[in-house]
């Protein structure tokens, strides 16, 4: 079973860059079984898909965030990362890293989530 | 972008009840529809993939059906531990989108 764990600052100032890392265990991030993805959830609200990266480094982003977003993968560390630039209070949310099945495109496994607050 | 709507928004039920949650897509998505359960202060968990296939380890009281634009999640003989918000998710086209959720409260 795949396990995912988010890490990174819980507080980011407006206009700065939000950076998170997800460490994967239980599977090689290079296996090709999953896309590695980020999803966020503002407090009390629904889920928003942010984007995904494949083992090859190929990425797909949500158009609503694309201009500010970079998702990358580090196969040597079995990690993938999120960078979201020029953040505002609207980016305050719980950020989940997750694995998306390459076969079904279901989100099979989720990290526990990490709260990122954008505030000065 | 494909929009998913769910009904009802909220349902209060008693243990052993059966409930059905509906998810409708704004356009045809085949069977590219998945269901998740999110309990308070937890991450979502996959219940059903590809409209009707149970994910590993999910109790048999959870089942899914539908195709095209209308889908249902059925929970038979509800248990107290099933109190949660349930989300549908489409993977037919990018960007992936989620429904707004259905909150299930156990009386």
Summarize it.
Chain A is mainly β.
Characterization of this structure:
The complex is a heterodimer of chains A (120) and B (107). With 120 residues, chain A is an all-beta fold. Chain A has no helices and eleven strands. In chain A, the strands form two sheets. In chain A, strands 2, 4, 5, 6, 9, 10 and 11 form a seven-stranded mixed beta sheet that branches. Chain A has a four-stranded antiparallel beta sheet with strand order 1-3-8-7, with no helix packed on it. The relative contact order of chain A is 0.32. By secondary structure, chain B is mostly beta strands. In chain B, 0% of the residues lie in helices and 50% in strands. Chain B contains no helices and eleven strands. The radius of gyration of chain B is 13 Å and the shape is globular. The chains are: A mainly beta (120), B mainly beta (107). Chains A and B meet through β9 and β10 of A and β5 and β10 of B.
Name some characteristics of this structure.
heterodimer, A: 120 residues, mainly beta, seven-stranded mixed sheet, 11 strands, B: 107 residues, four-stranded antiparallel sheet, 0% helix, 50% strand
**Helix- and strand-based class of chain B?**
mainly beta
Assign the structural class of chain A, choosing from mainly alpha, mainly beta, alpha/beta, alpha+beta, or little secondary structure.
mainly beta
| Tertiary shape of chain B | globular
Counting H and I runs of at least 4 residues, what is the number of helices of chain A?
Answer: 0
Unreliable spans of chain A = none
User: What is the mean pLDDT of chain A?
Assistant: 97
Order of helices and strands of chain B: EEEEEEEEEEE
Rg from Cα of chain A: 13 Å
Count of distinct strands of chain A: 11
Number of helix segments of chain B? 0
**Major sheet description of chain B:** 7 strands, mixed
- Please compute the radius of gyration of chain B using only Cα atoms: 13 Å
Question: Averaged pLDDT of chain B, please?
Answer: 97
Could you tell me the strand content of chain A as a percent range?
Answer: over 45%
Low-confidence stretches of chain B: none
The count of β-strands of chain B is 11
State the helical fraction of chain B. under 10%
The end-to-end span of chain B amounts to 37 Å
């Amino acid at each position: 079973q795949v396990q995912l764990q988010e890490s990174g600052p819980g507080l980011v100032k407006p206009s700065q860059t939000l950076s998170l890392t997800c460490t994967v265990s239980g599977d090689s991030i290079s296996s090709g079984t999953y896309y590695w993805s980020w999803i966020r959830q503002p407090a009390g609200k629904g889920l928003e898909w942010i984007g995904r990266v494949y083992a090859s480094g190929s990425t797909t982003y949500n158009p609503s965030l694309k201009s500010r977003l970079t998702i990358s993968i580090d196969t040597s560390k079995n990690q993938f990362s999120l960078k979201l630039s020029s953040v505002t209070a609207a980016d305050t949310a719980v950020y989940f890293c997750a694995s998306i099945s390459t076969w079904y495109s279901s989100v099979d496994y989720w990290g526990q989530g990490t709260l990122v607050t954008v505030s000065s | 972008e494909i929009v998913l709507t769910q009904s009802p928004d909220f349902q209060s039920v008693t243990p052993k009840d059966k409930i059905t949650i509906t998810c409708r897509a704004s356009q045809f998505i085949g069977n590219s529809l998945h269901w998740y359960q999110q309990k308070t202060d937890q991450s979502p968990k996959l219940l059903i993939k590809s409209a009707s296939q149970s994910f590993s380890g999910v109790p048999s009281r959870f089942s899914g059906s539908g195709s095209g634009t209308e889908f249902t999640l059925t929970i038979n003989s509800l248990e107290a531990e099933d109190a949660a918000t349930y989300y549908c998710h489409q993977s037919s086209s990018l960007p992936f989108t989620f429904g707004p959720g259905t909150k299930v409260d156990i009386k």
